[in-house]
Design goal:
The chain has 633 residues and is α/β, with parallel strands linked by helices. Helix content is 28%, strand content 27%. The chain folds into four domains: 225 residues, Rossmann fold; 86 residues, Translation factors (Elongation Factor Tu (Ef-tu), domain 3, Beta Barrel); 110 residues, Elongation Factor Tu (Ef-tu), domain 3, CATH 2.40.30; 180 residues, P-loop containing nucleotide triphosphate hydrolases (Rossmann fold). The longest helix is centred in the last third of the chain and has 20 residues. The protein is globular, with a radius of gyration of 31 Å.
């Protein structure tokens, strides 16, 4: 290192012990693009003398070769490690850096300012206790400044330092500083921050970074680093009720069984009573096992294995909680969602929801409102676009254990994953369980699906016809139903056009409305299957995800996908309703096959092409499939 602590030179053990016991502050730098975030962190690392000699030499060489500050050192190069970042002069990824002073240890997340990478900024903010929001003194408060401030507030950060940077480029003007401070405080008043401290700085020149600068003698507040060394943050998860999301059942041999995971909140000790959320079973802790031996107690962020006094059923996905304060359970909850993908969020579409230790299927059932990040007002909308924030109702296929995000960041958060691509598309913060989740329960009925099916001498199922408009779905479905009725079977047909005259008459043809159209029909088909019927559903249903959702609503073997694969050219030639011609002329928008995509099935149970087989032949093939597989008794 370029310097050594006096204590370290005298007593290494004492130095290491003192260093280990220092408090830790996690903070994030954020704000609009090119406000100087990376330069500020580089300056902190440089001024606190935490660089090796070879790093200093490389920094000086890189500054001359690819730097943006002329003959001066370009401190941003210490943090912007990606080639694309250095080429463009912007931060793309989240860069984490550790540094330490005599008073405190720090982990800082340098996050991108560009709107395109807001999702990366949210990732960095999710673990931070404090945010440094940089503002270019020449630009003032911008939209991205407001967006990042709102996301920081949403993600539970309660302490903010507003670093008004590049004061050297405005002659250290007090008037400019005070104008920006007034503007920011007016906006931040609604965000619920516990503290907001504004500091005029020049990250490049070092003004008000380590010590007060003579260039801003009018500034009566602190310099940046002394403030970071002394601020107290109240985010102490050790005082919360105990929570351990189980990641792994540890069973190396017949004599040992433990439950491993990282403690999300609270303190646990041998002898403490715990309760398993989901089953409600209780036991007590006998051992806290780690790779370094047993512990007398363990707290937040520690990876441990707990051994219990009783043999009870626990698996990955369960949450161990303090016996007197268990987490809540729900399959319907309200949450703030930050959308992170170019493909819009569509209510009703099935996604995976990943909690601390579980992945479960579900959907955003309703978008209550969107949040305008400039004014914080609530706006109506049907979908969320990239970087938008909305307040939503979420429904999952099974109950999850949770705490409100305001009480526990780990058990109160989730990420949203696209089922088809496995891309992370959003992040959510749970606010509360919906009351109807507690008030609405399944009612046990004496006459069930099996009894209804037995009375009808058939095995209930859904025949789901999908394909382009004009492919022949309705024609074939109509013939199949006639033949089944001739055989004395009990059926019902849900046809796309017919349903839009009643149940779905309020829906249009946007992607969001198409998803809701299929969701409603799938729910109706599920009820009809429960009634013991063979249900014929004839819908274009262009998206794989919604057809998968419909399949997952019924039991295995009850969903038969019939892909009417008639080519577009043939469908368009038939054009019985004249719809393709209108779509080609631009008179109909969002028409499947023309300006809206159709996603063909990959593994349909039955595939038919009515350009090669007559409708009667196709119907015969379907009825034979039902006979062969036991659906007709």
């Amino acid at each position: 290192m370029s310097h050594a602590s006096a204590l370290a030179s005298q007593d290494v053990i004492a130095y290491l012990d003192a260093h280990e016991k220092k408090s830790m502050l996690r903070f994030i730098t954020c704000g609009s693009v090119d406000d100087g975030k990376s330069t500020l962190i580089g300056r902190l690392l440089y001024d606190t003398k935490l660089l090796y000699e070879d790093q200093l030499a490389a920094l000086e060489a890189d500054s001359k070769r690819i730097g943006t500050q002329g003959e001066k050192i370009d401190f941003a190069l210490l943090v912007d490690g990606l080639a694309a970042e250095r080429e463009q002069g912007i931060t793309i990824d989240v860069a984490y850096r550790f540094f330490s002073t005599e008073k405190r240890k720090f982990i800082v997340a340098d996050t991108p300012g560009h709107e395109q990478y807001t999702r990366n900024m949210a990732t960095g903010a999710s673990t931070a206790d404090l945010a440094i929001i940089l503002i270019d003194a020449r630009q003032g408060v911008l939209k991205q400044t407001r967006r990042h401030s709102y996301i920081c507030s949403l993600l539970g950060i309660r302490h903010v330092v507003v670093a008004i940077n590049k004061m050297d480029l405005v002659d250290y003007s007090r008037a400019i500083f005070e104008k920006i401070e007034t503007d920011y405080r007016a906006f931040a008043e609604k965000l619920g921050f516990s503290s907001v401290v504004c500091i005029p700085i020049s990250a490049l020149e070092g003004d008000n970074i380590l010590t007060k600068s003579a260039n801003t003698a009018w500034h009566k507040g602190p310099a940046l680093l002394p403030y970071l060394e002394t601020i107290e943050v109240e985010a102490d998860a050790s005082g919360a009720p105990f929570r351990l999301p189980v990641q792994w059942v540890n069973r190396p041999n017949l004599d040992f069984r433990g439950f491993s995971g990282t403690i999300a909140a609270g303190i646990v000790r041998p002898g403490d009573e715990i309760v398993v959320v989901h089953s409600g079973r209780r036991s007590s802790v006998t051992r806290i096992v780690t790779k370094d031996g047993d512990l007398p107690a363990a707290g937040p962020h520690q990876a441990v294995t707990l051994c219990l006094a009783d043999e009870i059923d626990i698996s990955r996905g369960d949450v161990l909680c303090a016996g007197k304060a268990p987490a809540e359970q729900t399959d319907q909850f309200a949450a703030h969602v930050i959308w992170m993908h170019d493909d819009e969020m569509i209510p009703g579409r099935q996604y995976f929801f990943k909690t601390a230790n579980r992945i479960i299927s579900g959907s955003i059932s309703e978008l209550k409102h969107k949040v305008n990040v400039n004014t914080l007002e609530h706006m109506s909308g049907k979908t969320l676009e990239l970087n938008e924030v909305g307040f939503c109702n979420v429904t999952t296929s099974a109950p999850i254990a949770f705490d409100p995000y305001a009480e526990d960041r780990v058990t109160g958060s989730f990420v949203i994953i696209d089922k088809r691509t496995n891309n992370t598309v959003g992040a959510g913060l749970i606010d509360f369980s919906l009351r109807r989740a507690q008030n609405v329960h399944w009612q046990d009925l004496d006459v069930n699906k099996a009894a209804r099916a037995k009375a009808k001498h058939q095995k209930p199922c859904v025949l789901w016809f999908t394909g382009l408009s004009g492919a022949g779905k309705s024609t074939v479905a109509n013939l199949v139903e006639k033949r089944l009725c001739d055989l004395g079977r009990h059926t019902y047909t849900l046809d796309g056009d017919n349903v839009r005259h009643g149940l779905n008459k309020d829906l249009g043809f946007t992607d969001a409305d198409r998803v809701e159209n299929i969701r409603r029909v799938a729910e109706t088909a599920k009820l009809m299957v429960d009634a013991g019927l063979i249900v014929l559903v004839s819908f274009i249903s262009p998206f794989q995800s919604e057809r998968r959702m419909a399949r997952e609503m019924v039991e295995d073997g009850e969903f038969i996908e019939v892909y009417v694969s008639t080519p577009l050219a043939v469908c368009e030639k038939r054009d019985v309703k004249g719809l393709y011609a209108k779509a080609r002329r631009g008179e109909i928008k969002n028409f499947t096959g023309i300006d809206s995509a159709y996603e063909a099935p990959e593994r349909a149970e039955i595939t038919l092409d009515t350009s090669k087989a007559t409708a009667a032949e196709a119907a015969t093939a379907i009825v034979e499939h039902l006979k062969k597989n036991g659906y007709l008794g």
